[in-house]
Write a structure and sequence with these properties.
The structure is a homodimer of 338-residue chains.
Chain A (H helix, E strand, L loop, with lengths): L3 H17 L5 H7 L6 H14 L2 E2 L8 E2 L1 H11 L7 H12 L4 H16 L2 E5 L8 E10 L2 E8 L4 E7 L6 H15 L7 H5 L8 H20 L5 E4 L11 H13 L1 H10 L6 E4 L11 E8 L7 E8 L4 H21 L1
Antiparallel strand pairs in A: 1-2, 3-7, 3-10, 4-5, 5-6, 8-9, 9-10
Helix pairs in contact in A: 1-3, 1-4, 2-3, 5-6, 5-12, 6-12
Chain A binds a DNA duplex (30 and 30 nucleotides) through helix 2 and helix 3.
Chain lengths: 338, 338
DNA sequence: ACTGGCACTCGGCGCGGGCGAGTGCCAGTC
DNA sequence: GACTGGCACTCGCCCGCGCCGAGTGCCAGT
């Protein structure tokens, strides 16, 4: 159990280290924060904190830096999310309001997050699984070729080609379109499969094959690319990892290239409110010296996707968390409006 | 005018420097290439090449490295595009064949290019200006709200919301859809505006406002986001810029973030066959120590967009050019099929 | 429990010398 | 006249040295 003052000391160490990027010593601490005690006392506290694994020395006779465990304690108990100021909020809203379509919303969100946090931003496209169908459109591009367009309530549009086993008449297509829409419009993706299961039976024998092709393509679209896409930005901010350069930056860039890794990363974050993964808490090895702050966002109350930032473990957690949360909130609003 | 042997020397210098990343001296040159002359002679040639500005010494008493001008000569007169091997071609084709839609084609192309060249890949989405309309779809999502979906012959799908001044009936909408398609299907984007100009007049007065809104949104879509999108990948390869690290990598990352810069970069490249911009030939300052190899690609014979790579001026030009050209060719094929 | 004092550690930095790759020049040869 | 071997010279790189100072741990004193 750590005394109140020791927690204060830890907090001061984290704040100073984040600010200066240099190991912080006992003297500097007492000067910059009025802890009311002498450096010698602080030294004792630091020894105890080190003993417990919250801070460490890079070399003997250097100052201390927080460990992952130290940051964890800081985030959990010593810091509050720093809310955005009023002007900042307005700026966020204005910037996002200019978006013309979903791609644009995501692109703007990425830029915004990267700028606000000066870190690498990651934004997942609204997932399909938790979305609902707004409309399904079928277009005959050729006698035996149909384009399937799926529009979701999050504004996402997916299209697929369907090669039909037999030509399909315009009337049949219209019929199928109508019946399909009456069944699935407004429904959750997860519910769709059983809702359309018996649809082929209600058509003439000669059309059943075609109907089945269309349906199977639809179902594929629903599951296949689920949560698959995302957008990243602000990689130039990685160069501010000034310390040991190529060593840290390379694996991070590689991880960012691997969408699979990123999606898993966001996916792991359970807490819909806000998740912070610090250093080695990230399973992917290349990100062991970074922290990931992520949060869910969604058009309604419910989260349909995640967004977040990746930065050095030595980051301004309260500020970053504030920015991430604020952006998520406004993106949710935008999606709800569109 | 440079003698044949001096050109040989320049070629050897470029090849060695690209291989070793270290300034190359006269002795090493004679050992690795059988030029048939002694180091002393080569030294004289090098002095002449330096005089002409094709090579330079980083410091007195170090080897020589090619200048931008030297690379330019190398690319123009001393090297041939290195064709891909048969297995490589097959691999490219197989990899691209798996794509399910346009996004996927572009994404796969980026990955492929980055892997093949071990550099940063940039792929522009097929441009709208040179595309033709395959289909226009109108969906009533609410009484006075229409979704406009535009499908191009390059497989691109754009969608927009249209807020109508007045509710529009299902019949009117179907009518508009039919007339619109009969006029613009198969037509070039550039021709569309005048083709639809008089369309509102043929509708009842009460619907004209709505028709006009739909049309203006359509026209906006055609011009507004023209050539706007692109995808990049392989940024992790930047870490192989081992030399002077943060200095070179930062501006490059920044340039890559700025889509505008990249689009301008690709746009400048005039020659549809293949353009190589070396070092300071790039107008954007941050890319002064990189080279850009770009080429047009398209579904037919005509180029609808560009793709390319960005790498250090010290790159394997023949190999890179071969890879870029081959990928562009296969992407063109894939687009033509879909 | 806190403080001031003190001896100790060790990374960073600047200095200086040796090493070697590479050069330019020159006199000699085919 | 073109090429070659030889030679003196230049510098950047590397290594070891010693100083400096920030920071520490410990201990005796309040």
């Amino acid at each position: 159990m750590l005394s109140e003052r020791r927690l204060q000391v830890l907090r001061a160490i984290v704040q100073d280290y984040v600010g200066t990027e240099e190991p912080v010593g006992s003297k500097a601490l007492t000067e910059r924060h009025n802890l009311g005690v002498s450096p010698a006392t602080v030294r004792n506290d630091m020894a105890a904190l080190e003993e417990e694994g919250y801070i460490a020395q890079p070399h003997t006779s250097a100052g201390r830096i927080p460990t992952d465990k130290g940051y964890r304690l800081f985030v959990d108990r010593l810091a509050d999310v720093k809310p955005m100021t009023q002007p900042e909020r307005r700026a966020i809203q204005n910037f996002l309001d200019g978006a013309v379509d979903l791609d644009d919303v995501v692109a703007r969100t990425v830029r915004l997050l990267a700028q606000l946090t000066r870190q690498v931003a990651v934004v997942q496209y609204p997932s399909l699984t938790r979305s609902a169908v707004r409309h399904v459109e079928l277009l005959a591009l050729a006698p035996a070729r149909v384009m399937l367009v799926l529009i979701t309530d999050t504004g996402r549009v997916e299209q697929r080609m369907v090669d039909c086993p037999a030509p399909i008449g315009e009337n049949t297509l219209a019929d199928l379109r109508a019946r399909l829409n009456s069944r699935v419009t407004g429904r959750r993706f997860t519910d769709v499969p059983q809702l359309v299961q018996d649809l082929p039976e209600s058509f003439e024998a000669e059309d059943r094959g075609t109907v089945a092709s269309v349906l199977s393509t639809l179902l594929e679209t629903l599951v296949e690319r689920t949560e698959e896409r995302l957008m990243i930005g602000g990689t130039a901010n990685l160069t501010r990892f000034t310390h040991d350069f190529p060593l840290t930056i390379q694996p991070v860039l590689e991880a960012l290239e691997e969408q699979v890794v990123l999606l898993k990363l966001l996916g792991e974050a359970q807490d819909p409110a806000m998740t912070v993964r610090i250093g080695h808490e990230n399973e992917y090895e290349g990100l062991n010296s970074t922290s990931v702050v992520s949060v869910g966002y969604g058009s309604g109350g419910e989260a349909v996707a995640k967004l977040g930032v990746v930065g050095p473990t030595r980051m301004d957690y309260p500020g970053t968390m504030g920015a991430v949360r604020a952006v998520a909130r406004y993106v949710g609003q935008i999606l709800a409006e569109s």
